[in-house]
Design brief:
Blueprint lengths: L5 E9 L9 E10 L2 E8 L8 H7 L3 H4 L5 H12 L2 E5 L2 H14 L7 E4 H8 L8 H7 L10 H18 L2 H12 L21 E6 L5 E7 L2 H10 L5 H9 L2 E6 L3 H15 L14 E7 L5 E7 L11 E5 L2 H15 L3 H4 L12 H4 L13 H12 L13 E6 L5 E7 L2 E6 L2 H10 L8 H12 L4 E4 L2 H4 L6
Parallel strand pairs: 1-4, 4-5
Antiparallel strand pairs: 1-2, 2-3, 6-7, 6-8, 9-10, 9-11, 12-13, 12-15, 13-14
């Protein structure tokens, strides 16, 4: 078994789950160094009320912490206990994130190697579905001395470590630990702790280069994992290595779920035009085919542009295409596969009336151009062929809010009108501000349309039809 030096098994109790707002109420540590096991714990005055449901869960009341030391009184001594140790916790990002924020507020900096026992359990037992602490207590026959108290839970992690090192082949155990302890290859221009606070939740991340030039915008339902993947792979993938060398700053924006991340990513790429993004850029010639009655009295596809009419309201629209060339190419392919007449479609001209189109001479046209096929039949086959390309007309009389709820209960409302995203609101005030700032006719966007169609089809969001009162201008007061 490899020697990992000083092991610090740690657990915290807190006033809530947000490390930037909530505070620590109890710290429990089991320190193992050179065969010596030391247990230490303390209550912490959070300098804020403990919510009643947290008091019920942990048994730690406001009265119990009233005379306890504040974190700033404990900071230097606690830092000495952690220094040089392997920080081991269950769902370690929670505990480490709380301590980093608490130390930062007291003017200290925490830098430790961190091992998460949730991830370790998943790595060693990939076929098991659950890895929460209560499940591990049963699975590994651990002996809890109370639950949801810091020292008792820290001691359970020490017991778990002993069970794993005794029951898992040393090579397998050490390999799993080393894989989890690997640090990404940090970009040269980023601070060593630049990645520490990235949450493992849905959202969008942005890389900036020298002079704050936008380099890349990406999205993920697991932000932290996705960002780290750029740097873990930079020795294998040239594009990641080149990007890594250029990054001077990164930021991220959290969302409730995947739909919000996709919408925000598409918008930011169009607004910022990052150097390394090639897809989702603004389509300057966004166009579609629209079936219109011609002078001859039959339907014919006519190319129309999003700048000319509201694609969200237009009827009999098929596409979408980023250029005339792509639109014509798609219609030609459709005509070939369904043996439609290019002359009748308006894609091929002829010098003499009733002269067959070129496809007819190759037996690839049913002959609408020469009267062998009735125009009505050709028209019906054209509409059938275009069915898969039909753009759905906006089904609501006005704007709607698409409500997306995250795993942590966060709710985002994406405000949509005529398939155009006006923005995302998290409060009624946000909602009214969006309507105040919205243009009279927002630009129709192909990527946004496809994201919304997919989200609605998969029922990833709930629809709230917005009323006139929702859209009233915000009270200036």
């Amino acid at each position: 078994m490899a020697h990992y030096g000083k092991l610090v098994f740690i657990d915290l109790e807190t006033t809530g789950a947000n490390p930037t707002f909530d505070r620590i109420t109890e710290i429990g540590i089991v320190e193992v160094d050179a065969g010596q096991v030391t247990r230490w714990s303390t209550l912490v005055n959070p300098e804020m009320p403990i919510p009643s449901f947290i008091q019920s869960l942990t048994g730690i009341t406001n009265a119990m912490v009233q005379q306890a030391p504040t974190f700033d009184m404990l900071a230097e001594g606690l830092l000495a206990r952690l220094e040089g140790g392997l920080f081991i916790a269950h769902n370690a990002r929670f505990d480490y994130g709380f301590l980093r924020n608490a130390f930062k507020q007291t003017g200290h900096s925490l830098r430790c190697q961190v091992l998460c026992t949730v991830k370790l359990s998943r790595k060693l037992f990939p076929d098991e579905a659950r890895h929460n602490l209560d499940t591990l207590i049963t699975r590994h026959n651990l002996a809890p001395d109370g639950r949801h108290r810091a020292l008792a839970d820290a001691d359970l992690l020490w017991q778990l470590w002993n069970r794993l090192t005794a029951g898992i082949p040393p090579e397998t155990f050490n390999q799993a630990v080393q894989l989890l302890l690997q640090r990404p290859s940090m970009p040269a221009h980023l601070a060593p702790d630049a990645l520490d606070d990235i949450p493992d939740r849905p959202g969008v991340y942005l890389f900036y280069g020298e002079k704050d030039i936008p380099l890349y915008v990406g999205k993920s339902i697991h932000l932290r994992q996705r960002v780290l993947s750029h740097f873990n792979a930079d020795h294998r993938l040239y594009k990641d290595m080149r990007l890594s060398h250029q990054i001077h700053r990164l930021e991220w924006r959290e969302t409730a779920g995947e739909t919000g991340a996709l919408l925000l990513e598409a918008q930011l790429i169009k607004d910022l035009q990052p150097i390394h993004n090639r897809v989702l850029r603004r389509q300057r010639e966004l166009c579609a085919w629209q079936l219109r009655v011609t002078g001859a009295g039959h339907l014919q596809p006519v190319l129309t542009y999003a700048s000319e009419q509201d694609f969200g309201r237009a009827d009999r629209l098929y596409g979408l295409f980023s250029s005339r060339r792509k639109a014509e190419s798609a219609l030609r392919e459709l005509a070939e596969s369904h043996q439609l007449c290019l002359v009748t479609l308006g894609l091929e001209s002829r010098t003499q009336s009733h002269k067959p189109c070129f496809a007819y001479q190759l037996h690839r046209c049913h002959g609408a151009c020469v009267g062998d096929e009735a125009i009505a039949l050709h028209q019906a086959r054209l509409e059938a062929a275009l069915t898969g390309l039909r753009i759905k007309t906006w089904p609501y009389a006005a704007a709607v809010g698409l409500i997306e709820t995250g795993a942590d209960g966060r709710q985002d409302m994406h405000v949509i009108h005529n398939w155009c995203c006006l923005g995302t609101a998290r409060s009624e005030q946000d909602l009214r501000a969006l309507f105040n700032e919205a243009p009279s006719r927002p630009a129709f966007d192909m990527d946004t349309y496809r994201i919304l169609i997919r989200a609605l089809a998969r029922r990833q969001v709930k629809v709230r039809v917005l009323t006139e009162s929702d859209m009233l201008a915000a009270d200036p007061a």
